[in-house]
Amino acid sequence: MAAYRGALIGCGFFAVNQMHGWRDLSNVEIVAICDRDSERLRIVGDQFGVERRYQSAEKMFADGGFDFVDIATTVGSHRALVELAAGYKVPAICQKPFAPTLADAKAMVAAADAAGIPLMVHENFRWQTPILAVKAVLDSGAIGEPFWGRVSFRSGFDVFSGQPYLAKGKRFIIEDLGIHSLDIARFLFGDASRMTARTRRVNPEIAGEDVATMLLDHDSGVTSIVDVSYATKLPEEPFPETFVEIDGTRGTLRLGKDYKLTVHGPDGTLQSVVAPNLLPWASRPWHNIQESVALIQKHWAERLAEGREPDTSGRDNLKTFALVEAAYLSAERGETIVIADLL
Ligand code: NAD
Ligand code: 89Y
User: Fold this and answer.
1) Considering the entire predicted model, what is its pTM?
2) Cβ(166) to ligand 1 under 6 A?
3) Ligand sitting nearest the alpha carbon of 163
4) Between the chain's N and C termini, which has fewer beta carbons within 10 Å?
5) Domains of the chain
6) DSSP notation for 218-241
């Protein structure tokens, strides 16, 4: 028997990656799955050979027999499902966006704390191989102290065919994708204290904003720009690559197209390719995201074993989520938002 028996709720578009990631971990076995939709339940159950299948999360928890739950549903159900897990004292992973509002997210962290369970947000972009490579360069001191940075995701990829709900929400790119870019900015430059943002909707066929430009003041002294767009038609489509630019006191770092990393310092210029691995079940161009799913799940299992809080815990994610809220508020009011006022 595996060291950890898991249950997964939400057998949709993205959960298949999570199921593959769990299958690759020798000490984890997914023993039960749940989806309201019987067809999705059947497809994923058959593909991964899971016998215990539920259309009701309540019933699955009542039957029990698992050590953690992986919540892979869309945002509307996250709070209820995390609170359900807390009620049964079952450690939980929750997909991003953590919650519809910061108030919901705070309540979820409080529920997990009261139950004494670990709670991790599946904030996987900081686990991408190229982003880990950027962080390693920063930590090595090769470019000195960073004072300016840019985290940029600009694409014209059709995300709506796989995730049609993305076209319908009042909020789109900041909540869906910018949330990852903001988390990367926190991962690289530390927590931010102030946010100024501007948004636009370019695509007339969707309800929310598809372009956002955000300016952040980090406590470390770094000023960063986080810019995201799904309205950018480039000659070569970079989806889903995040580009990074960092200026430091001793040099510069640039992560560009096709995972090319250039590090320039007092000793010269080093160029390398920090491409993600193409896992056997992965497919281009998603392989960068897919590998980060496997890596964050490994991190979860390690932290469960050590009894330590995961890096992207619910508590940590409140600080990323506050940046999302602040960006919408700033764009709406045309003002700079102080993050501490939200937390
Ligand atoms: P989806 O709509 O394809 O799948 C969600 C599934 O959950 C559906 O099959 C639905 O029937 C089921 N469901 C919803 N509420 C339920 C409930 N209360 N009980 C049981 N089943 C329920 O959505 P998706 O595209 O797979 O996205 C799921 C989540 O993953 C979203 O929050 C999305 O933002 C996130 N996501 C994350 C990444 C990433 O890289 N981290 C990438 C894509 C999507
Ligand atoms: O939902 C989004 C995510 O988290 O990563 C990419 C995505 O699938 C579309 O923007």
Assistant:
1) 0.98
2) no
3) 1
4) N
5) 4-117 (3.40.50.720), 126-283+320-341 (3.30.360.10)
6) ETTS-EEEEEEES----SS--TTP
Say if residue 128 is exposed, middle or buried (CB neighbours under 10 Å; 0-12, 13-18, 19+). Answer: buried
> How long, in residues, is the chain?
343
- CA torsion sign for 7, 13, 18, 19 is positive
CB atoms within 10 A of CB 252: 18
Q: How many CA atoms lie within 13 A of 139 on its CB side?
A: 9
96 CA closest ligand 2 atom index = 4
**How high is the ipTM of this complex?**
0.99
**Rounded to a whole number, what is the distance in angstroms from the first to the last CA of the chain?**
42
Question: Pocket residues for ligand 2 (CB within 6 Å)?
Answer: 159, 163, 176-177, 180, 240, 289
- Evaluate whether 290 touches 13 at the Cβ level (below 8 Å): no
Per DSSP, the three-state class of 157 is coil
Sheet with 252-256, side-by-side order of all strands: 268-273, 260-265, 252-256, 243-248, 146-154, 223-229, 211-218, 192-200, 337-338
Contact by Cβ (8 Å): 193, 218: yes
Q: Is the pLDDT at 2 greater than 90, yes or no?
A: no
Give the Cα separation of 22 and 99 in Å (integer).
Answer: 24
DSSP 112: H
Beta bridge partners of 29: 5
Q: How far apart, in whole angstroms, are the C-alpha atoms of residue 269 and residue 251?
A: 9
pLDDT tens, position by position, 260-298: 999 999 999 999 999 999 999 999 999 999 999 999 999
For 62-82, write each residue's pLDDT tens digit: 999 999 999 999 999 999 999
Q: What is the mean pLDDT of the chain?
A: 98
Q: How far is the CA of 217 from the centre of ligand 2 (A)?
A: 25
